[in-house]
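Section: Multi-chain targets

For targets with more than one molecule, the full set of components is provided together so that the structure can be written out for the assembly as a whole rather than chain by chain. Components appear in the order listed by the source. The example entry contains two components.
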Amino acid sequence: MVEFAPSARLRRTPFSAGVEAAGVSAYSVYNHMLLPCAFAGLVEDYRHLKRAVQLWDVACERQVEIRGPDAGRLMQMLTPRDLSRAAPSRCLYAPVVDGRGGMLNDPVALKLDEDRWWLSIADSDLLLWAKGVAQGAGLRVEVFEPDVSPLAVQGPKADALMARVFGEAVTGLRFFGCGRFGFAGHDLLIARSGYSKQGGFEIYVTPGEIGMDLWQALMAAGRDLDVRAGCPNLIERVEGGLLSYNADMDISNTPHECGLGRYCNGANLPGVIGGAALMREAETGPQRQIRPIEIAAEALPPLTAHWPLMADGARVGQVTSAAFSPDFGVGVAIGMVNKSHWTPGTALVVETPQGDLPAVVREKFWN
Amino acid sequence: MVEFAPSARLRRTPFSAGVEAAGVSAYSVYNHMLLPCAFAGLVEDYRHLKRAVQLWDVACERQVEIRGPDAGRLMQMLTPRDLSRAAPSRCLYAPVVDGRGGMLNDPVALKLDEDRWWLSIADSDLLLWAKGVAQGAGLRVEVFEPDVSPLAVQGPKADALMARVFGEAVTGLRFFGCGRFGFAGHDLLIARSGYSKQGGFEIYVTPGEIGMDLWQALMAAGRDLDVRAGCPNLIERVEGGLLSYNADMDISNTPHECGLGRYCNGANLPGVIGGAALMREAETGPQRQIRPIEIAAEALPPLTAHWPLMADGARVGQVTSAAFSPDFGVGVAIGMVNKSHWTPGTALVVETPQGDLPAVVREKFWN
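Its structure, encoded as tokens over all components, is:
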């Protein structure tokens, strides 16, 4: 077992004290910040997430704030998604691509005001891309990272817990809807969203110094709901087909390859970076695409580098995330598969560090 | 102790197999890639680095390649350092700043050819900044990450080891000089450089698939020199005053504050991003600056967040990196200190998680 090496370079979060008091057993790094990855263990955390409610320190989902008279213009340059109907009460999943349509990040966009947006980012310094484009193009915007740290409340009992702390109204939010709710004199943006399929909320906590008060208030209010510290769970997120930037896709993939073509409905708008490339690809369709892959196995080793997907001895793709699912009794996986072999039902072989295993392309994810 | 959570999102390197065979005991993450942080332990690794020679997997020092007719123009936009005398035989430490002069990265620049450069980067996605500026400004360049993974050979016996594998000529390189040397039919760029004060080299290994062959060749050739796997060592690098981006400085600091004013000699050149801000600051001088800080202690806890530096009950700065030095018998530290208290000899108090300790501003780093 390899230890996690702490460093001043890797930022702690407003919730780190709570995470550590709760006995975090493994850390990862995400956007130069600590991301808890296990408490009781991958499987025990998974079972608990599906039956109760967890607090997740996802402060590492940093915000990029874009503010100024050209904020809307820059935002529409940054994403091929049509933002014309964006509103302060809606989260928008908005892929960000380079000039060739290659994925740079897959953030959630929040329009706070006509000239003020947040991008809630995956694991790449999207701040530098947005700042660089604005600098190069001479736009009248400020681009910076505000003091905002998301705290997720996830699990089937999330509504019950949130109602106790923020009032019944918060449970009226629809999926990807958001609104403002009070805590300790602060007006916090809360969305019904999160990186699981168990339901729940993300609280955009600001300023950071109220983080532990909120953490403790939620813990205290949820004692009889069995609330615990948790974190995004590999098994659960693969069952649900939730993608992880830099694992399941990177700059070499387009949104079409990632199954995100429906978020490219503004690719034809003027100024959209990568728009022309995405329009061309949309005509022919992608040559490879994300697929759910079922692996016949009773256990799987940790995936630390992509596993080749083979058919008749030739490589036809790779598995990019995988775990054994206790609930489904199979290896659940996300793969990028060539068009020749992406039809549901296609039998493949996956090369794992513990040997070749039979796999099959599925129609849908599990959850 | 918290475990390191492996993930497909965090890339392995061409040398990871060697690092793991050598018994890496702690990992960090740097540029979305694994960075070994300890083998025998911080102090034992330190002593060995100072007496023998180590191989360091610093593949995480990724390269940003800039290529095309506007490559030179973009490079000079990206750094306030005058690049007019750059040459293929020289490494140049070249701060990269935003429009306000805030540090975005402190890479080493390598001019490979008139229209081809590498930036060997610290821990931020400088690729996205360089791509963004080029995109926004419509420059004729390609900006991408090539398949290049630095391997450092550091320690007093580095020359002896390198001569055995690359020939005597490699020892003729001066500090920050570089040249091309053969290995297994590949022409590798090698520089006399590295993130220690013990002397040594950085080999820009490409393609990645020769990584383990080179690792093993160096290990085999250096057996009688006591060559071992190692890594950048916190104690040694603080003794030597080597800065770490995102620990000792970040986007809120200018090069002048970081003591890097001498690398801003091109701030007045046309098009340099942040040039005007840096020129203004150079007139008055910075209001705070990096200083060596000596802490009176016989041991120090790990620094995982900045420690306030106090004088007469008021905050006058912070310690950004610190460790107990066995060789100097004191706490060695890097701090950012306000002008009012930065004179060498000034007595301060540093607030650590284990209580207040006396500290003093030093004239120079230890090594």
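The longest strand of chain A covers residues 314-325.
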